[in-house]
Amino acid sequence: MLRMNLRRDVFQALADPSRRAILVLLATHSMSAGAIAANFDTARPTVSKHLQILTECALLTQEQNGREIYYHLNAQKLKEVADFIDPFRKMWDERFNKLENLMRQYKNTKK
Amino acid sequence: MEAQTKVQAEEGRQELFIIREFDLPVELLFKAYEDARLFEQWMGTKVIKLENKEHGSFAFETSHQGNVVFTANGTIHEFVPNQRITRTFKMENTPFPVQLEYLEFEKLSEETSKLTMQIVFKSVAFRNQLLKMPFAQGINRAHNKLQEIVHQQNK
């Protein structure tokens, strides 16, 4: 069973001022990676890296639009961050991961 | 299957929901809560007492580097194997009043199950404060670490 873990810590993602600027840019409408990069002096690969980090922690979502990928701001996720839900959720997620692994082992030793 | 834990804390409500699906039969999921020795291993706490029955009581104690940092106790109101545990939950030495917790265990398939925890607080403010606790602890740890490093450098 594939288990997807959000590799990026959302607070780490928000710590970078360039990434915060990208979020502000996308607050009113979604944009393609190229359009986003055009707003910054930074090199394109750097902007792509920022977009990857923001997408990995679900602050941004992607949508295919023809041949381009458009980035949307995930307002729900931002709200969760503001409400401190993320560290709380992570804490329980870690516990439940331990529970699952423990009981899987338990199941196997009983066979 | 939802591999990740979900936390629902609606605006202005004094409850929160913690929901998670498991790659486990419901019997094993329930056992992880029922068996004190198993519970200790994944919750990272020591079970001082656990009376799995109506009006039974329980007490947990968590230690860190030899010091007790957290104790909680409560009473069980419902204990239905593989289905439900309802209990009160009080964190000792904190400003939080008693919480009411509903743990629902659900069979999804032969090999998968789901846990829904509903925790009800005395007020909206207390619920919001609890959500912040892991964040605050994280900051404290980072703070202490920083002080450690500064102290080392000043030697």
Broad structural category of chain B: alpha+beta
Instruction: Assess the beta-strand content of chain A as a share of residues.
Output: 5-15%
Into which percent range does the helicity of residues of chain A fall?
55-70%
Count every helix of chain A, treating DSSP H or I runs of 4 or more residues as helices: 6
**What is the H/E order of chain B?**
EEHHEEEEEEH
Spatial extent as radius of gyration of chain A:
18 Å
If you had to describe this structure to a student in words, what would you say it looks like?
The complex is a heterodimer of chains A (111) and B (155). Chain A has helices at residues 10-15, 17-25, 33-38, 44-56, 75-82, 85-109; strands spanning 31-32, 60-65, 68-73. Chain A is α+β, with helices and mostly antiparallel strands. Chain A has a three-stranded antiparallel sheet. Chain A starts with 9 loop residues before the first helix and ends with a helix. The model of chain A is unreliable at 1-5 (pLDDT under 50). Chain B is α+β, with helices and mostly antiparallel strands and 155 residues long. Chain B is built from three helices and eight strands. Chain B has helices at residues 26-34, 36-43, 124-153; strands spanning 6-8, 15-22, 46-50, 57-64, 67-80, 84-91, 99-107, 113-120. Chain B has an eight-stranded antiparallel sheet with strand order 1-2-8-7-6-5-4-3, with helices on one face. In chain B, helix 1 (26-34) packs across helix 2 (36-43). Chain B is globular, with a radius of gyration of 18 Å. The mean pLDDT of chain B is 92. The interface between A and B is medium-sized, with 27 and 31 residues.
Summarize the structure.
The complex is a heterodimer of chains A (111) and B (155). Chain A is α+β, with helices and mostly antiparallel strands and 111 residues long.
Name the descriptors:
heterodimer; A: 111 residues; alpha+beta; 60% helix; 13% strand; B: eight-stranded antiparallel β-sheet; 8 strands; 30% helix; globular
